Amino acid sequence: MDTVETAATVHQRDKTVTIEVNAHKVKMPAGRATGLEIKESAINQGVKIQLNFVLQVQLPNGSAKVIGDDDKIPLSEHLAFTAIAADDNS
Prior knowledge:
Elements: H1 2-14, E1 16-21, E2 24-29, E3 31-34, H2 35-44, E4 54-58, E5 64-67, E6 72-75, E7 80-84
Parallel strand pairs: 1-7
Antiparallel strand pairs: 1-2, 3-6, 4-5, 4-7
């Protein structure tokens, strides 16, 4: 049983998904990621944000939910995030 779980985990890590951060495409390993991991990947792929920005996931109903640096969320294709400066009141 451990072998099957390990193989599935390895297979999952080999897959990538493309998400959006501030309208920029960002490739991430499939599975779950923390808010901090999402911001780090976005920065490494050229998105002009900083690690202290507030990250929000865009929900299907048009609202947004804040994702903390330690919050883990499942990633899927076309998931969209916005990252804004913590002091931005817009």
